[in-house]
Amino acid sequence: MSSIPGAAWIKSKSAQLGVVPSKALGQNFMVDPHFLSHIASLAPKGAGRVLEVGPGLGSLTLPLLERGFEVKAVELDSRLAAALPETVKEFAPESLERFSCLHKDALKLKPQDLEWEGEFSLVSNLPYSVSVPVVLHLLSSFPQLSSFLVLVQKEVGERMCAKKGGKNYGIPTLKLAWFGEAKICENVPRTIFWPVPHVDSVLVEFKRKLRGQDLREKTFFLIDKAFSSRRKTLKNSLSFLDKSLLEQSKIDLSLRPENLSVGDFESIAALLS
Question: Is 151 strand, coil or helix?
């Protein structure tokens, strides 16, 4: 039976490897075994396969393996990537055949890197500095990524899951909504981290919805253009488009971009085809 190391082991291992969590990168190691087990219990069951980005010292990897998942971890830090298999061997030797680790930048991950044909989920404590870019890259690159459960900075989570018309509603909200539905499932106490961050965190849950991908690039282009001048109305922020084309969309051009759904932007993109 595997066990989950606590704060003392995490700090000792970090010192042994010469790894210091980077504030600039938003790195904080999770050190509460009970909460880590809780996160693993919430992981989408799906096909039983989990991608973990930024596993660090393996504190979430172990409870995921304990739950029976096949886990592929992607770690940018070479020291952590080299140490992680040894950690699994130490704490969960019976799970080694269900575990692998890639030393790679998740933003450059390609389908051939995973060699998974069927569905899988993303379950991660994402580095705060790249959480949204990583999620959007993986969703666009891996159609078989059917769901995720990620721990992110609260402010980021609120942007990911914002409602139309709100101050947090913007580019991350709309682009994520293109792929499916996201919601905040619970707040995360700061005390589960080392070092203790100065920001709050949340768990965000996501489920992919089937959607044709032919208009994605044009829709995302329009979203970027509209929000580059957030305070302007659509009539002004999308003024580079033919006026008659915008009128065909039957969207009120006096609205600001935060008042449009991803479906509204998609309908404009369809007229550009």
Answer: strand
